[in-house]
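Field guide to reading this record: the first block holds the primary sequence, the second block holds the structure written as discrete tokens, and the final block holds curator observations. Each block starts with its own label. This record concerns Zinc-dependent alcohol dehydrogenase family protein, catalogued under organism Yanghanlia caeni.

BLOCK 1 — SEQUENCE
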Amino acid sequence: MKAIVYGGPGKRSFNDVPVPRIQKTTDAIVRITRTTICGTDLHILKGDVPAVQPGRILGHEGVGIIEEVGEGVSNFKKGDRVLISCVTSCGKCEYCKKQVYAHCEDGGWILGHLIDGTQAEYVRIPHADNSLYHVPEGADEEALVMLSDILPTGHEIGVLYGAVKPGDTVAIVGAGPVGMGVLLTAQFYSPANLVVIDVDDARLEMARKFGATHTINSTRQDPVKELMAMTKDGVDVAVECVGIPATFDVCQKVLRPGGHLANVGVHGSSVDLELQNLWIRNVTITTGLVNTNTTPMLLKTVESGKLRPEQLITHRYAFSEFPQAYEVFSNAADSKAMKVIITNE
Ligand SMILES: [Zn+2]
Ligand SMILES: [Zn+2]
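BLOCK 2 — STRUCTURE
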């Protein structure tokens, strides 16, 4: 089968590799019908995630059809259409019992990281009973690909950890796919103001379409000044969705007393935490890796049409065009790509 294979920093190939086989009785083999590329895959390709070994098939998002299940799998059978969670969970360990699936002792984020991932014709999914979801009858499968990672990440690590409440003013710093996931799912909780900050006008325009009440282009306006002018004493919730010191700094400077800073961004270096200013302000700072414990709820909201994540898809490719999809996604500033979908029916 063909797959996108990591070859070490800066090296990616679209190679012939062996089809995965069942290794444990709790495994399933899924034929991928739709997948996508995540910003995290680009981080891996840059060499930012040294745990990824050359030869690894990338990808942790997708939907597909069950090809084969191990003897220990009871929730799924050959032919079932399934959504793949970016987080694998055994359902039995201490972390799984607490729904902190990100830290499952025999799972967590392993797909396209520590084991082969979804940017392939087939993928092996360990602990299939706990790591896959049935695709609801008639559901838009492209929309569901957004539920593998970006929507649960935005919802859990941005909106829930940030404790967004009715009437809140929420600042979302970074309008990439996960920032958009925060923007879409924050609206479940009826905040009064949703301010999105980015450097790209096209992304800000998209944000306004998806429910942003205000947008700030930080190349032209100082986001701290603008946010402080807009509010009396800062925002209730600041969500960091970039992962660099400058954007974290904006978030820590605009929090009102009692506010929440939810860090979603993947940071590659330390930030300057201004604890000398924050300690007296009763703020809460949170970070995390997605648990996907809210995926079943998100599935229902997509099924009902309340959440429409297919709006995030800007580009579509056939499986044979996978390398082109990578080119376009990695040049998002020019291509205006948000999420790309690769189909293999
Ligand atoms: Zn991802
Ligand atoms: Zn576990």
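BLOCK 3 — OBSERVATIONS
Residues 12 and 42 are 10 Å apart (CA to CA).
Residues 89-90, 92-93, 95-96, 104-107 surround zinc ion (ligand 2) (CB under 6 Å).
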